[in-house]
Amino acid sequence: MYIVQCRDASYYIGYTTNVEKRVCTHNNGTGAKYTRARRPVILLYYEEHDTKSEALKAEYQLKQLTRKKKEEYITEGRNMYVATKKFSTE
């Protein structure tokens, strides 16, 4: 499960098995329709889950939060890895 920030400062939350590849597809314009018009995106946060089901549940729960709560979630990191690596768009 990952969170990217779009050019317009909005957040996009999604699920993938390969974060680096997914961020690149968003930035290449072949990702989600939402991010296509809001490129480039910057990876703010990601966390790994044991199963796809767990990741999708986490994604859904995070999408229900207010922007402020999402920002708190990212900042606190919930004891997970906070992304600092920037992925190229190539």
Distance between the termini: 22 Å
The secondary-structure element order is EEHHEHH
Give unreliable regions as ranges.
Answer: 82-90
Within CATH, the superfamily carries the name: GIY-YIG endonuclease
The major pleated sheet works out as:
3 strands, antiparallel
The dominant shape is globular
- Could you say what the CATH topology is called? GIY-YIG endonuclease
Strand content: 5-15%
Number of domains: 1
- Count of individual helical segments: 4
The chain-level structural class is: alpha+beta
| CATH structural class | Alpha Beta
Q: Overall mean pLDDT score?
A: 87
Structure description:
β1 and β2 form a beta hairpin. Residues about 80-90 have low confidence and may be disordered. The chain has helices spanning about 20-30, 35, 50-65, 65-75; strands at about 1-5, 10-15, 40-45. It has a three-stranded antiparallel β-sheet, covered by helices on one side. The radius of gyration is 12 Å and the shape is globular. It is built from four helices and three strands, in the order ββααβαα. By secondary structure, the protein is α+β, with helices and mostly antiparallel strands. The protein has a single domain (about 1-80), classed as GIY-YIG endonuclease.
